[in-house]
Structures are given as C-alpha cells and as structure tokens.
Amino acid sequence: MSYHNKVVLITGGATGIGRATATLLAERGAMVAVNYSRSEAEAQETVQTIQQFGGWAIAIRADVSNNEEVISMVDQIVQQFGTIDYLVNNASITRYIAMGDLDAITEDAWDDLFAVNVKGMFYCARAAAPYLKQGKGAIVNVGSIAGITGKGSSVPYAVSKAAVHGLTKSLAHALAPDVRVTGVAPGAVSTRWWAGREEQMRSLTSQLPLDRIASPEEIAALIASILEQPSMTGQILTIDNGQTM
C-alpha cells in the first residue's frame, strides 16, 4: 500500500519501534510527525534520515501525559499538514523493579507509568479522533506481551500494558465505524531498553522457539500492515518469536 500524502503521527517516534515505523511509512510516501518528549537529538536524527531519501517529516515535542501539550501537538500538525490520517501510539516508559519486590513499588511508579502508557495514549487518540474520523483512519496502540502474561520489567509496567490492551478494545468500540483501533503486543525487541542487560537478552533468546529477538523494523512492518487492513479493529496482535506460545 502507498501512504502517499497520508499524515501519520507517531508518538515516541525518535528511537526504536517508533523510529523504524516512521522511516518505513515515510519510505512508502507518508508525511510523518515524529513526536518526542526528551529525545530531541534522536528525533531530529530520525527526521534527517527520512529527509535524506526525499521523505517528509517533522519532529514535534510533547509530553503525551500532558493533555494540553497533546492538544497543542495535534493542532500544530494539522496546521502544517492539514489533517491526521493515522496515529501510532508508541510512547511508553518503564521502571525496572523485580517482580517479587512489591515493597519497592512506589505510588509514583504507578502514577508515572499509567500517565504515559495509558492516559497518554487516550489523550492522543481523543485529540486526533476528529481528523481520523474524517479520513476513515486508524490507530495502532503498541502494547506488550507483559500485558498478556503479567510478567515484565515491573508489576506496574505489566499492568499498564494490560490496560493499553483494554483501552484498544474500548476505543475500537467508541470510534467505530469511522476509525479502526488495533493493538500490537511485541515480545522482546532489540531496542535501547536492553542497554546494560545484553546478557539477559542473550539468555532469553536461547529460550525462545524461534531462537531470536525481533528487530524494531519487524514490529514496524506489522504496524504498517495493520494500518492498511480495512477489516481489522479491536484486536491485539502478538509478535514475540513464540515467547507466549
């Protein structure tokens, strides 16, 4: 599918899955808004990479946990590009807390993770919804197998991703029939989240049925295929090299 002249907002678009998705969709003709919160240098690098092959992209700062900043971001994108056709809700944070160490889980950990991972996705979907409806667009929310298994970098992270999956289904109902809303649940992906934990990643790889870790580009390819699928909504697609099989 060609995304020629389609406008895509990708939150957390500066690195990892977000960067790979921005690059892929721009290669297919999309005009991409690369959202970032703190990774300005990486966001500008993503934009420059896209511009080098003749693509259209802008970097735009907004903390997705701040509703006013989200509204301002969407307004700026619409002023520049005219609309928003697709939204990829990718921005997420985590906290590394041992699953069994419940005493180490603070109220701030719960609040911070839900503010970005759940409320942030809702704010972006709500702000973009009027434009997505006009163009019969789509949303992809990036969840995690942690939201399926209940096991991840911390209890609050896993629960926040389960909430993302629930939000995906609720938004699919709320925005039908005009907007399709689908989720992806990646397993381990070779991003900077593994920095300093390379030995853990290698150990996990040997336990996976496919004996490999997914690349950001592979997740991006799935996201792109979901955006163009007119009959899919309200589903959570797992891509984890058999980890939850």
TrEMBL record:
Q: Which residues are in the Ketoreductase domain?
A: 6-204
In terms of InterPro entries, this protein maps to: KR_dom, NAD(P)-bd_dom_sf, Sc_DH/Rdtase_CS, SDR_fam
Tell me the Gene Ontology biological-process terms attached to this UniProt entry: bile acid metabolic process
Matching Pfam families, A to Z?
A: adh_short
Q: Write down the superkingdom of origin.
A: Bacteria
Please provide the record's keywords in A-Z order.
Oxidoreductase
A molecular function GO annotation: oxidoreductase activity
The record's family statement is:
Belongs to the short-chain dehydrogenases/reductases (SDR) family.
Classification via PANTHER family = OXIDOREDUCTASE, SHORT-CHAIN DEHYDROGENASE/REDUCTASE FAMILY (AFU_ORTHOLOGUE AFUA_5G02870), SHORT-CHAIN DEHYDROGENASE_REDUCTASE FAMILY PROTEIN
**What name appears for this protein in its UniProt entry?**
Ketoreductase domain-containing protein
Organism field? Paenibacillus barengoltzii G22
